[in-house]
Amino acid sequence: MWNGDYGFLLGNLVKKDFTVRYRNMSLGIFWSLLNPLVTMSILTFVFTMVFPSDIKNFPVFVLCGLVPFNFFTMAWSSSTSSLIDSGNVIKKVPVPRQLVPIATVLGNCVHLSIQIGLLLGFTLIFGLGVNRNWVWLPVVWALEVMFVCGLSLISAAVNVYIRDTRYVVESVNTILFWMVPIFYDFSKVPERFKSIYQLNPIAALVMALRNILMDGVPPGHILLLKLAASAFVMLVVGFLVFQKLKTGFYDYL
Amino acid sequence: MALIEVKNVSKTFPHAGEAKLLRTHLQEQLLGRKRNVFYALKNISFELNKGESLGIVGSNGAGKSTLLSLLSGLCLPNEGQLSVQGTVAPLLELGSGFHPDLTGRENVFLNASLLGLSRKRTQECYERIVEFSEIREFINEPVRTYSSGMTMRLAFSVAIHVEPDILLVDEVLAVGDQSFQNKCYDRIQTFRKNGNTLLFVSHSPLLVSNFCERAIWLDHGALMMAGATKEVLEAYQQSKVNP
Questions:
Q1: Which residue of B has its CA nearest to A8?
Q2: Domain match, B32 and B79 both
């Protein structure tokens, strides 16, 4: 039915998200930097002064966890409510509906790239330097974005039918802050829980980032495989579920 | 070959109440309990050929807007078949894609892409869209500062430049002032003269008879009458006098 220009529409939706968020903010884009900086400082204070840990370059270590975690929670929770927020458009204009949550995730990528800039900046400041394994960075980030797109397609569609979904997403995000190795090292996790941890793609990404940026080694093959598999599976399942559920959107929005 | 073919179409809606609760969904899926539904449209059939225009009349809640939503592909019928050939531009609610914090210019681009215009076409049409809306001096102001008439002007200007095969208009022009309304009506007449197809919902008998050679009359989801505009309008108005 709708045979318009997908790229043009997606671009405009992403631009809208971004413009609307910052137009009335005096500090504008700096908010994207301020939030991780503050959290990083607090965590660094607690874990070097209050509970001293033996991790070197703690600010970089924390940022490797915070940046992917922040992106994940922001993108996931905002896209979950995206269909309802754009309900008036979806009920009146026959746009391809899957573009709405995907545009929200991609809109968050703008902040993500700013925060990645911050992370790389800190890596250099702490003298960790550039190494050739940095070529893996775009790959692991792209996999995370794919994973979040798939997950958001499901949660956004379910949220139309059952509005409590939003709160489930928020609770899961709170749990994830502790269950992703943000301020502790994966090696501290007891052996019997490790395999469960590796199923969590956000935890896998954090480990991959630390491998690349701090240890200067490429992420392990098994880690990469798990990351890629979960991203692809999630994206495909996301599209299928969305396709199935979207027929009822008009009645429930 | 009919451009629009509607055959025994019915559309039901669940009664809203508890429809969104998990409990309701579980009862439906597991226990097979049926929801209370009401018929917004019941067993409707008609055809429309290329170049024809059809007026849709009826009182509030007759199912006029639901019919246009079905035709624009926003929802699927629960029973019956429906086929639409060609590109459709629905003007169901002007400015529904507008964001108040974006400027008029930004909204033109966003809305055009929502309605299916390509980037290139939008850039080509942009000047004409602004010209048609007559609000050039405010085009870089956020839409939240616009009056409802100004928003309507901009929204209609975008929609009319999509140049679809089929235009669906749902009583959206009432906000504009007289001169702008006339301009829109001229534009719709030109659209018809070019051999395009129009579906027009309105409460104004004068407009319906101006634009449409055929009309249908809906009442509580049922098709009461279909035929030449003059006869349908007469019967419809008669029913309001002696219910």
A1: B119
A2: yes
> A4 and B69 in contact by Cβ < 8 A?
no
Q: Is residue B91 one of the residues assigned to a domain?
A: no
In this structure, the answer to whether residues B153 and B172 fall within a common structural domain is no
State the residue range of the domain holding B228: 1-86+165-176+186-243
pLDDT of residue A116: 93
A-B contacts (CB, under 8 Å) = 93
Q: Find, in chain A, the residue whose alpha carbon is nearest to that of B16.
A: A252
pLDDT band at A236 (very low <50, low <70, confident <90, very high): very high
**Residue B70: which of B210, B209, B201 has the closest Cα?**
B201
- The DSSP bridge pattern shows strands B53-57 and B214-219 to be parallel
Q: Which residues of A touch B98 (CB under 8 A)?
A: none
- On the question of pLDDT at B17 being above 70, the answer is no
Name the residue among A4, A19, A247 with its Cβ closest to that of B117: A4
More confident residue, B17 or A168: A168
Stated length of chain A: 253
Compute the mean pLDDT over every residue in chain B, rounded to the nearest whole number.
85
- In chain B, the number of structural domains is 2
Average pLDDT over chain A reads 89
∠ CA B26-A166-A158 to the nearest 5 degrees?
45
Q: Domain check: are B23 and B126 in the same one? A: no
User: What is the distance between the alpha carbons of residues A247 and B234, in angstroms, rounded to a whole number?
Assistant: 38
Residue B196 maps to which CATH number?
Answer: 3.40.50.300
A21 contacts in B (CB within 8 Å)? none
Instruction: Give the whole-angstrom CA distance, residue B148 versus residue B95.
Output: 10
Residues B125 and B142 in one domain: yes
Interface residue B201 vs chain A (CB under 8 A): no
Report yes or no: B110 at the A interface, CB cutoff 8 Å.
yes
The rounded percent of chain B whose pLDDT value lies above 90 is: 9
At B48, which amino acid appears? L
